[in-house]
Write a structure and sequence with these properties.
Length: 288
């Protein structure tokens, strides 16, 4: 929790002010989560300060909210291309990504539980940048990272707004896919790839996750033989959720001892007559 508050204040996300009479302060709450490794082990404990966005009013606290994310097909295509070309795939995670988005609206939030300033309990925070939970937070972050990539010479794909391509010289290329605060990147020039990571870590608070291992529920394994993907942990979680983790595998999942009959006692229907009947009725209705 203290790390979250420190990140917010370091980023100059808010300012403690007197609450205007004509404005309402939105409540905030703490959300706790455990981040896991692909093998299920705990990576780290995480506390997030979240705004109660359901209290926001359209046209007053927010306007546009939509922000695109990378499609799964795009990520799979990048993985396939890297496997074909023999490139390495890397991953970066932006710490508190939404805190970087500049707010245009005038938004006030209450002081968080456990971190109320003594002697200033009646004051509220005016947000200069977005917090998690705000309806416009994803859009403000996307606008921020999109403008930064444009300044760095990246070209945004026309059909995939979260895919960015940067060319250097005739042959060198760098590909970056963005999914909220996760970046997957690859390219044929190691120096170009390394410089991208250095510049990103200078601009934003980043976690260098190294080679891509886990993304959107897909487990990725890279070695000299190629790139291999699977969803073992995802499948195990589904089985556990429905109480079938200890079930026996079977090639043809049919009901045990089910007896199939050629005639089950139902009335026989001529399929062609049924189709012609519906076709005639449709044309009759159109004509009439």
């Amino acid at each position: 929790m203290q790390e979250e508050i420190d990140a917010i204040e370091k980023n100059k996300t808010w300012q403690l002010v007197e609450k205007p009479n004509d404005k309402e302060a939105i409540g905030v709450k703490w959300v706790y989560k455990l981040k896991h490794n692909p093998d299920g082990s705990i990576q780290r404990a995480k506390a997030r300060l979240v705004v109660k966005g359901y209290a926001q009013q359209p046209g007053i606290d927010y306007s546009e909210t939509f922000a695109p994310v990378a499609r799964l097909d795009t990520v799979r295509t990048i993985i396939a291309l890297a496997a074909q070309k023999g490139w390495n795939l890397y991953q970066l995670d932006v710490k508190s990504a939404f805190l970087n988005g500049e707010l245009k609206e005038e938004v006030y939030v209450q002081q968080p539980q456990g971190f109320v300033s003594k002697g200033q309990e009646e004051k509220v925070y005016r947000l200069k940048k977005a917090l998690y939970g705000l309806k416009q937070a994803p859009r403000t972050w996307y606008s921020e990272i999109d403008s930064y990539f444009a300044q760095q010479g990246f070209q945004r794909s026309q059909s995939e707004p979260t895919l960015y391509v940067k060319h250097q010289g005739k042959d060198d290329i760098l590909l970056v896919a963005l999914y909220v605060d996760d970046l997957v990147y690859t390219g044929n020039n190691k120096k170009m790839v390394e410089n991208f990571k250095i510049e990103m870590m200078k601009k934003y608070e980043m976690s260098d996750l190294g080679l891509l291992h886990h993304f959107l529920g897909i487990e990725v394994y890279q070695d000299e033989y190629g790139v291999f993907i699977c969803q073992k942990r995802y499948a195990e979680n589904i089985l556990k959720k429905f109480g079938m983790y200890g079930c026996k595998p079977i090639e043809i999942p049919l009901v045990v001892n089910e007896k199939l009959k050629k005639e089950d006692g139902g009335r026989l229907i001529d399929g062609w007559k049924l189709v012609l009947s519906y076709s005639f009725k449709a044309r009759f209705n159109v004509c009439c």
